[in-house]
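Is this the right way to post structure tokens for a design question? Let me know if I should format differently. Anyway, here goes:
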């Protein structure tokens, strides 16, 4: 089903699977680098979906990327052959800390540039 995308839900503080609490696997959450492109592509192929747009936040377990979340859209892909239910809420919680939800303002023009613009001169 190539046209379908996954929906991401807000993290409510509860883990989806209590079995994840029994595991003692260290998880690293970090921003993806250019060198992670091959790992993200293989993760995309395993999950049989398209790669969400960058930038990506990745969850790494035992040195391999098991899940990735787009900071732009919130879409998450994960390895379907590994236990990853606990990684999705972790990625969502960390992504909510990294994404700036404040509206962006255009920086004000300097008064000299504004005066030149008002006179019809080239402000550059």
């Amino acid at each position: 089903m190539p046209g379908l995308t996954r929906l991401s839900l807000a993290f409510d503080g509860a883990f989806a699977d209590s079995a994840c609490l029994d595991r003692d696997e260290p998880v690293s959450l970090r921003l993806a680098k250019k060198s992670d492109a091959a790992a993200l592509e293989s993760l995309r192929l395993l999950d049989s979906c398209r790669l969400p747009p960058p930038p990506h936040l990745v969850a790494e377990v035992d040195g391999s990327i098991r899940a990735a979340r787009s900071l732009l859209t919130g879409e998450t892909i994960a390895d379907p052959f590994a236990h990853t239910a606990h990684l999705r809420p972790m990625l969502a919680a960390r992504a909510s800390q990294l994404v700036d939800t404040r509206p962006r303002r255009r920086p004000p023009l300097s008064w000299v540039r504004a005066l030149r613009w008002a006179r019809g001169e080239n402000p550059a």
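Format looks fine. Someone answered above. Worth noting: Residues 1-9 have pLDDT under 50 and may be disordered. The helical segments are 37-47, 87-98, 111-119.
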